Amino acid sequence: MDGMLPQTHAPFISEPRHEGRMQHTIRQPINSVGTGLHTGARISLRLSPAPENTGIVFRRTDIDMPPVVARYDMVVDTCLSTVLGCGTASGHAERIATIEHLMAGLAGCGVDNIFIDVDGPEIPVFDGSAAEFVFLLECAGIVPQGAPRQYVHINRTVRVEDGDAYAELSPTAQPGLTIDISIDFPAAAIGQQRYMTCVEPGQFREHLSRARTFVLQPEIDYLHSVGLARGGSLDNAVVVNGDSVVNPSGLRHPDEFVRHKVLDAIGDLYLAGGMVNGHFRGHKSGHTLNNRLLRKVFAEQANWRRAPLDASLTTPRDRAA
């Protein structure tokens, strides 16, 4: 369904399917080891089951740091990735960075409750997509729990802007989260692309989970000069130089760039503290705008409500915030 630029892909036609409206966790713990994108360090990751209503909880095992619940108001940096902090004033040490791909995998697979342990300051990058996280979750087994899933229902349209870039959440007649994202890059290899989808396990696994992060060649030297992207390579990122993709293996999808932006948005929106029931529209949006959007949504109680999915069958009155 891809066309000429601007490329547009819309893999959903009818209502998204939902594999249960109960909360889910994983059946058993699972471990993996990978490289930190920015530190270049070897980092161990452990995913463990969590009780009902726990949420997504990150824990660092290498330092004395309180557990951090994955929530929008625990985000302390969005410059190069989404970074969680414990809320203390002790500085950069008590942070967990690059969480967005794991968060996207959790949202895409429908995992509500989990403990995430890492022995370093960031989540391993693996291949730059969410595919490894999906693999780990499926190997551990995704199982239903006894409590109903509490969705964050969007009651009225909320929008944030930065120049011509924007991010918006609005009520939807469809159950679950639908996403419509467009990008526009001067690099000819990327150009203008648009992607529309619903967020549910089958769609996420097949169409989104393997889309990798990308970087422009001129940005790499700068990142290295400030001590970042030490673990970056052609094995975990798509590198673009003008009208060409540097990676010898090329792209996994013709529109892999916008698919990855959708993946990032799914991970960022899961910081709502639960799965969102609404429609997300973004143009040239990124981690910063996505986080600003959630902060604006939760700034007014009239913008949202928390309830099981069945509560969304009565469509709220839409009024822009």
From TrEMBL:
Zn(2+) binds at H101, H260, D264. It comes from the Bacteria. NCBIfam families: lpxC (TIGR00325). It is an enzyme of class 3 (hydrolase). The keyword Nucleus does not apply. Keywords: Hydrolase, Lipid A biosynthesis, Lipid biosynthesis, Lipid metabolism, Metal-binding, Zinc. Its EC number is 3.5.1.108. GO terms for cellular component: membrane. GO terms for molecular function: metal ion binding; UDP-3-O-acyl-N-acetylglucosamine deacetylase activity. Belongs to the LpxC family. It catalyses: a UDP-3-O-[(3R)-3-hydroxyacyl]-N-acetyl-alpha-D-glucosamine + H2O = a UDP-3-O-[(3R)-3-hydroxyacyl]-alpha-D-glucosamine + acetate. InterPro entries: Ribosomal_Su5_D2-typ_SF, UDP-acyl_GlcNac_deAcase, UDP-acyl_GlcNac_deAcase_C, UDP-acyl_N-AcGlcN_deAcase_N. The keyword Transferase does not apply. GO terms for biological process: lipid A biosynthetic process. Pathway: Glycolipid biosynthesis; lipid IV(A) biosynthesis; lipid IV(A) from (3R)-3-hydroxytetradecanoyl-[acyl-carrier-protein] and UDP-N-acetyl-alpha-D-glucosamine: step 2/6. Its cofactor is Zn(2+). Catalyzes the hydrolysis of UDP-3-O-myristoyl-N-acetylglucosamine to form UDP-3-O-myristoylglucosamine and acetate, the committed step in lipid A biosynthesis. This is UDP-3-O-acyl-N-acetylglucosamine deacetylase. The active site is at H287. It comes from Komagataeibacter xylinus NBRC 13693.
